[in-house]
Amino acid sequence: MSIRLLKTLVAVADHKTFSAAADAVFITHAAVSQQMRTLETELGIALFDRSRRTPELTPLGRAVVARARKLVDDYDTLVPSVLGDDGFSGEIVLGAVPTTLTGLAPLGMRILRAKYADLHVRIHPALTSALMSSLDRGTLDVALISKPVLLPPGMSYLRVAEEPLHLITAEEIDVSDPIKVLETNPFIRFNRDAVVGTQIETWLQENNVRVSETMELENLEAISSMVHANLGVSIVPTPCVVTKYAIPIRRLPLGQNAPSRELVLLYHKEHPKIRVIEEVHKALLNAIAANAPSEADAS
């Protein structure tokens, strides 16, 4: 059995079809099919249920994939572990929620790259639920997410920042009561599929606030642009970093019981690149320390 066959098996599990796996490992569909039959012969078990139009992993096949991932990871980190660089070369794949893509994520990765020039960080944006699924499949090394109520088993996390939710309005709106602003202006809703979107909806219901929804978006910059144009008001997290490109809008606190979203780095407890993940965490914390908003920025 070769590591090449195991890598192809993991690619099939990640990409769901032989054709997509072939593209991922740069071989033909026929070669993937042949490699999987060879692996089944060597192991003496059926890895795939071929009674369906698209072959699917059997329960035994899924168990083999889980072990194959660890073997592939061990193989990929063999030389770095012997040389003692702890994996600070090559590539690490970072998932990130969209709200961090124009602030925290690039600021943190700039710090990381300055320290480890041989480490390439590939960023994959998605909502928290999708990022957790990608982590579980092994297509991500670590993810910067909004911490949900429940975390997947086998995962651990490092705290990054707490971002209180606040109301944003166009600068020409001079009303200071957040409830009145929400009930008298069109509401631009944060995507309800996001953890933050769920927090916002819960807060609105708990405070009996009725809003007139005009649109639903997941990109913080898009929401801010719409608010700046006075097309509505919105509730969003207070950014933990300040950038030069902040859109001029008015920010109002939601009150003493305002919810907060917690940004965390999520990863597998047994990940072979744990030292790299710890350095990613340090870089994000340093980015926050160097670019923290002042009281004037938050108001």
Automatic annotation (TrEMBL):
Gene3D superfamilies: Periplasmic binding protein-like II (3.40.190.10), Winged helix-like DNA-binding domain superfamily/Winged helix DNA-binding domain (1.10.10.10). GO terms for cellular component: protein-DNA complex. Keywords: DNA-binding, Transcription, Transcription regulation. One of its GO terms (molecular function) is DNA-binding transcription factor activity. Residues 1-58 form the HTH lysR-type domain. It comes from the Bacteria. Pfam families: HTH_1, LysR_substrate. Belongs to the LysR transcriptional regulatory family. This is Transcriptional regulator, LysR family. It comes from Marivita hallyeonensis.
